[in-house]
Amino acid sequence: MKPNIIHSIVVCLAAFALPFIVACSSQEESLPDTVTEAALYLNVSTLEQSRSGETANLPDNEQMHSVRVVVLHADGSVEHNRHYSLEGAQAQKYIILKVSPNEKKQIFLFANEESVSVVEGVTGGEQTLTGFFSSYTEKSEGFETAVNGLYFTPDYSGGKPIPMSSMYEIDFTEGRFEGTFYVVRVATKFTVNFKNWRDEEVTVKRFTLAKHADKNFLMAHVRNTDQNTELFDGETWIKWLKKVSDASSENDSYETTEATGWLKDYELPATADKAKTYTNGEVSVGKPTVDMGSPDRSKPGVAKNVPVFYLPESMNLKAGATDGEQEYKMTINIKEGEEEAKVKSFSFTLPNLKALFRNTHVIVNITLLNDMEIVVDVIPYSEVKLDPVFGL
Questions:
Q1: What is the C-alpha to C-alpha distance for residues 146 and 144, in angstroms, rounded to an integer?
Q2: Helix and strand counts by DSSP (H, E) for the chain
């Protein structure tokens, strides 16, 4: 039986309004309960769940290793610019900041900035992302415009933590504000599962994925267009994603999630090459375990090391599409017999993948059959229920 196909939802880092614990840090401001000063209470945390509701075990590179919070006054000047180094991969970070009351504020959140070695779209030549942030001290102006213009060529080799970002707007009055915040991974993730039903071990010499972009913005560039307005139905795009996630959790049918639509109208950097090809090396797929007496107990052979890779959000438009629908082609080269040079190639467009917006996790299931045919299922899905209180 083919697995159910679930709509593409982002895998998010979530922050929930839980009891706040003040961590030991010289950059955090501890306020007792009796203090009446204006204070912003942030709980930035990861809460990854599978659709069964169980907590997912995320690799270190998909968690937070550092967090930066930039708070802007209503006039756009910097009120706070704080960086917090975490002790390894962590799921939560509690932060308290004294702030001026009675004004609208913008809160920019970033994680794992150290993974961005060079940013583009800035004046004054090349610099690291940390160098860019360091240039914006208290009362500095122009941060919002500058940070929205940043883009970079990502490097996810060696398990480097994935950069994350988000922005929220709040109306802040006197007293405390306790908020729920998310940081969203800039990357997209692919997991490729091989299921081998042949009567021998299979060697996949390589597989490729085309066409993806080589650069992405630091901040998401979701367009303010009629198409998106209709898609979001009066909500922010993050709240819209929550509804899509809920639909996926309640009814695992492709028809239900397809009806919610796809986020296709967003921007990539003008200098991005949108036609890059990802290439994965050799994959060894084991023999199946066949139980002739109880066929239901038979199990396919699987890859000894399941390929997992990360790419920038991309936009490879489908020919003839008028609404931004995209498509991506995979090519697989499989060794035939014992001859090293004898390889059979299969090419196919990934089904059920109409957009590749940031933080999407795409699972590709490839079934290998005895007649040298393959069956491909693509399951873009959500690992976490989104539950934002307010959005971008």
A1: 6
A2: 5, 21
Residue 196: both structure tokens together:
């081998």
pLDDT digits (tens, 9 = 90+) for 83-141: 999 888 875 577 788 888 889 999 999 999 999 999 999 887 789 999 999 999 999 99
Strand 361-368 to 187-196 pairing: parallel
User: Cα(first)–Cα(last) distance of the chain, in Å?
Assistant: 40
Q: Taking the model in full, what pTM does it have?
A: 0.82
Reduced to 3 states, what is the DSSP secondary structure of residue 339?
A: coil
Residue 28 confidence (pLDDT) above 90: no
pLDDT above 90 as % of the chain: 50
Tokens coding 44: 């930035």
Tokens of 344: 């059979």
Length of the chain: 392
pLDDT, one tens digit per residue, over 168-210 is 898 887 778 887 787 888 999 899 999 999 989 999 999 999 9
CA distance 24 to 63: 20
pLDDT at 4 over 60: no
Residue 278: which H helix or E strand, with range? strand 276-280
Tokens of 385: 């229920």
What is the rounded distance in angstroms from the CA atom of residue 306 to the CA atom of residue 137?
45
DSSP letters of 97-146?
EE--SSEEEEEEEEE-GGG---BBS-SSS-B-HHHHHHT--TT---HHHH
Beta bridge partners of 154: none
In three-state secondary structure terms, 158 is helix
Task: Report the 10 Å Cβ neighbour count for 25.
Answer: 15
Nearest to 202 by CA among 6, 25, 384, 372: 372
